[in-house]
Design brief:
Blueprint: H1 26-42, E1 48-50, H2 56-67, E2 71-76, H3 96-104, E3 109-114, H4 119-126, E4 131-134, H5 135-140, H6 143-153, E5 159-165, H7 187-191, H8 194-197, E6 202-208, H9 219-239
Parallel strand pairs: 1-6, 2-3, 2-5, 3-4, 5-6
Length: 241
């Protein structure tokens, strides 16, 4: 990482392998994800989870909350994901932030890069159910303002879980996602934000919603990998982990 001056080849990190889930039951799958994630947190590690449908965050973030008190979840996503249910289910990518709010409370969930919402979600944002930084703020107000806003929103949090839905980026940079949305972030909006906000409060990262069949050029996958690399490098450079 040139951004942090870290060569990850000199850093000890472990690939814990894949989490094998029960596809016949979403609830069972989420509980397995939570159980395995709890084990990783119990070892005192800072995990990077790679998905997968955004609902996995409901399992991994709850596990983080078991080991890190005062947890806030920062979600970079084109969509608010604040629907109560979708197609008869309360557990899918359009509802995951609603489920996180139920677990951690609205003051402990922050949205960033948001630019596509339903009427139901818009009303929840307008009512202040969660705090959010819309995508337009990155362009109109700039990096320093966004960084300070994010730090202000998480100032009372003892620990922070970062979740990145790849559709937060403009489809020009991340076409291989399930629900692309124009007018999105450019990679530097997030990557240059990391040096401004990373600290020892950050306890986990997930990068989700990469769809390889929609990504023949592997542009999306490479960007997802870059985010993971920069997150790991940033923590190591600042914390010596």
């Amino acid at each position: 990482s040139m951004r942090f001056g870290v060569d990850l080849e000199s850093v000890l990190y472990v690939d814990e392998g894949d989490i094998v889930v029960a596809y016949e039951s979403l609830y069972k799958a989420l509980e397995v994800i939570k159980m395995v994630s709890e084990y990783v947190f119990s070892l005192g590690r800072v995990p990077v989870f790679l998905g997968g449908e955004h609902t996995i965050t409901y399992g991994t973030a709850r596990a983080a909350g078991e080991y890190h008190k005062g947890l806030c979840v920062v979600v970079f996503d084109a969509h608010a994901d604040l629907r109560n249910e979708y197609l008869g289910s309360r557990f899918n990518h359009t509802c995951v932030v609603s489920r996180l709010v139920e677990v951690f409370g609205g003051d402990s969930v922050v949205l960033a890069g948001t630019r596509a919402v339903s009427r139901e979600e818009y009303e929840k944002l307008r009512e202040g159910r969660v705090r959010y930084i819309p995508a337009k703020s990155f362009r109109r107000l700039g990096l320093k303002h966004v960084a300070q806003t994010l730090l202000d929103f998480t100032s009372s949090c003892k620990s922070v879980y970062l979740s990145v839905d790849m559709d937060v980026f403009d489809p020009a940079f991340a076409p291989g996602v399930a629900t692309p949305e124009p007018d999105g972030l450019v990679p530097a909006d997030l990557l240059d934000l990391l040096p401004e906000v990373l600290s020892n409060r950050f306890v986990a990262l997930d990068v989700v919603e990469v769809v390889p069949p929609y990504d023949p050029s592997m542009v999306t996958s490479m960007l997802a990998a870059k985010i993971a690399i920069e997150f790991m490098s940033g923590l190591y450079s600042q914390l010596g982990r």
